[in-house]
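FORM 7B: Structural annotation worksheet

SECTION A. Query
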Amino acid sequence: MRRTTTLAAIPAMALSLAGCGALDGPTDPVGPTTRDNHITVGVLMPETTNTRFANFDYPIIKSKVAELTQKQGRVDYANADASASVQDQQMQRMIDNKVDVIVLDAVDSHAIAGMVKKAKRADIPVIAYDRLAEGPIDAYISFDNELVGEVQARTLLEGLGKNADLSAKIVMMNGSPTDPNAAQFKRGALTELNTVTVAASFDTKDWSPEYAADHMTEAIDSIGKDHIAAVYSANDAMAGGIVKALKKAGVTTMPPITGQDADLNAVQRIVSGEQYMTVYKPYVNEADTVAQMAIAKVQGHNILFDSFTRDRVDSPTEKHIPAQLVPVTAVTKDNIKSTLIADGFYKVSDICTAEYEAACADIGLK
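SECTION B. Predicted structure
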């Protein structure tokens, strides 16, 4: 993906969805324009390993669609469980059922292009969600993915402290090679990791924690468990696999390990010291905005953005796709309360279960 403008980093919750400028007509998205509110939004999510899709994205989109359509709209939801062929079938079903618009988080951004073309021929708009699919996409909503990688790497270097020099050996556990976001995270991270040595780097099929654990074991065998200064993990699920592999190798004090998505298990690992950081991505902003995009498109509006949030992206097949890139925040044990708790993402009781009560008390989380 190539961006044609740059979005400045701003605090995670600073975007006001009510004023995001996603419509070119009336600013009230609830009232009908060219059609009524009986709208079906197809939502296709990519996998179940990452719990965010079922626990956050889908429920938020469903609620927002109901709000924007005076409870007359509905969401047709499907998760492909990391199978591109299953997602093809799910999208074909939605095309056959004549949904009004499709929100697509692609398993394989290249392989799905044919289905996007089919939807276009059926006059069904497709909005790429979270990762940019190929084909005639109408709009794109995601996070600033290169910034995610930069934030992960910068925070990792902070975790290394005085050891952040060329002698520090880093293992990079990157995401799936079929996910264009993974390449962007990696590219962003590498711009920051030029002061250390990347001793091993892996692209991890399907973002699988099991594959990440296998790769980590390979890195431990080649580098030595005592010579790994830190681990760049592109997301939280893989960080869990990495921690398991390090424990299996006899490591008792974990090196700094990154993550992304603020999964509950990852936040608890941060509290206990097993993971150094995660990237908090405000899914409410992303999911609310894509619901607004979807309803606006069906009701006859063009999808536009005000000058503050406007961006355009290019995929390998399409140019100048309207886009909104939502900023992110690094979370360590020092700011869990001021980010995840303050925003209502989690309650203290969610994080500080019996196993983590003492660790929570040590960092003032109670």
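SECTION C. Observations
The first strand starts at residue 2 and ends at 3. The chain has two domains: 40-143+282-326, 145-281+329-363.

SECTION D. Sign-off
Analyst initials: ____
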